[in-house]
Design goal:
397 residues; alpha/beta; Rossmann fold; Arc Repressor Mutant, subunit A; 10 helices; 26% strand; globular; disordered N terminus; hydrolase; helicase; nucleotide-binding; P-loop_NTPase; ATP-binding
């Protein structure tokens, strides 16, 4: 087993290695006779996360944005694209990105009547936005087919190399690009198949230091479920992402208000940050022909300390949740305690009693409200039950 100084000659992987042929290796990579690669931890230099948007969207990683329909998910991506392409300040005043290009894959919207007007309404530099067409015309006279991640990462890598300053890739929605009908025919409900497609996408993001933000819908009739369990298709979509955000409407008297929430769904790598609130407002864009188009855009309005669980519960209950109830307080306590990772239930019991929560109520909140996982750790007298938030690797339904 020797250090691998040259890039692999495997045709299936060659495009990926060629795409970074000018990038210096950070640490030696060794390869076994069977082709398995590994590195020595002692050769790897620790480095910080490279954030596109501090503690919210990471470069070199997969990130997700999910929520019910008609809550402005696509408009949020246009707002983010505008800030990336122009270097404008982030809405939470956490700084501003270095201006860069953005690649957009949008299966549900037309470039001319939807995407570009929304980008202009958000203030984007549209000369730095590449919109990938849904249909691909392969070489050698083969018929057109739909773009899919399973087959077309080489083409995506080529665009990244050509632009040289790509900071963000937006995929809207992710399940339209999973290769159904391609050579893999990906079953988006199967964890192993989803991972086999998204893992190479994650490698692409890492090799080119590009943030990938993919959008997803929620399953129907998912009310009452934990936030991550509401994601459409396999929960591998949330498991493989390092950061994720949910959007949802504010409800009052069982009706949506103008206010909407942008709250953390997952972050394995970032420091805690508050959620944000926003509204969708109408503005106008004038075409080259002088036509005035009415176009929606995002207006950020402030911060919220509500968790994703709280936001979805008020949505499910039409805004009529029992504020300040013992159960609601216990749910919030558990979400806060487990947000940083699994904890032994006996330690949680002590913390709960210190905070004035009934353990019986906390247990009810755990299994009926939050949907925690409880696993036994260790053996004999030293064993303990460890609680954690719902595992996104589990396929629900």
């Amino acid at each position: 087993m020797t250090p691998e100084d040259d890039f692999d000659d495997d045709p299936a992987l060659k495009w990926d290695f060629e795409s970074i042929e000018d990038t210096p290796r950070k640490a030696p990579v060794y390869k076994t006779d069977s082709g398995v690669r590994y590195q020595l931890a002692s050769d790897v230099e620790p480095e910080p996360i490279n954030w596109l948007w501090s503690n919210r969207i990471a470069r070199g990683k997969l990130n997700f944005l999910a929520g019910p329909p008609d809550q402005g998910k696509s408009q949020i991506t246009c707002d983010l694209i505008a800030r990336v392409t122009t270097g404008s300040a982030w809405p939470d005043k956490s700084g501003r990105p270095i201006p860069g290009s953005v690649i957009v894959l949008a299966a549900e919207d037309d470039a001319g009547d939807t995407i570009v007007p929304r980008l202009k309404a958000a203030g984007a530099d549209v000369s730095k936005v590449m919109i990938v067409q849904m249909m691909v015309k392969p070489v050698k006279g083969r018929p057109e087919r739909m773009f899919n991640i399973a087959d077309d990462l080489p083409g995506l890598a080529e665009i990244i190399r050509t632009c040289n300053d790509v900071a963000l890739i937006v995929i809207d929605p992710i399940n339209s690009y999973m290769g159904a009908g391609g050579r893999n025919g990906t079953d988006t409900w199967k964890t192993s198949e989803v991972r086999s497609v998204l893992s190479p996408l994650g490698n692409l993001a890492e090799r080119h230091d590009v943030a990938v933000l993919f959008l997803s819908h929620l399953t129907k009739n998912s009310g009452g479920s934990a936030p991550l369990a509401r994601m459409l298709d396999s929960q591998a979509f949330t498991a493989i992402a390092r950061c994720g955000w949910f959007v949802a409407p504010e409800m009052q008297d069982r009706k949506e208000t103008a206010r909407k929430f942008f709250v953390k769904g997952k972050s394995n790598i970032g420091a805690p940050v508050p959620g944000l609130t926003y509204e969708i407002e109408e503005t106008t864009v004038t075409t080259a022909a002088g036509l005035v188009l009415k176009v929606p855009r995002i207006k950020w309005t402030g911060e919220t300390d509500m968790s994703a669980g709280q936001v979805f519960r008020q949505m499910d209950n039409g805004g009529e949740q029992e504020k300040g109830s013992a159960l609601e307080a216990a749910i919030t306590f558990l979400e806060d305690e487990l947000a940083s990772g699994p904890k032994p239930s006996d330690k949680l019991k002590d913390r709960a009693e210190e905070r004035g929560h009934s353990w019986r109520t906390v247990r009810r909140a755990a299994f009926e409200g939050v949907g925690v996982r409880s696993e036994r750790s260790g053996f004999g007298k030293g064993s303990a039950y460890v609680w954690s938030l719902p595992d996104p690797d589990i396929d629900f339904g």
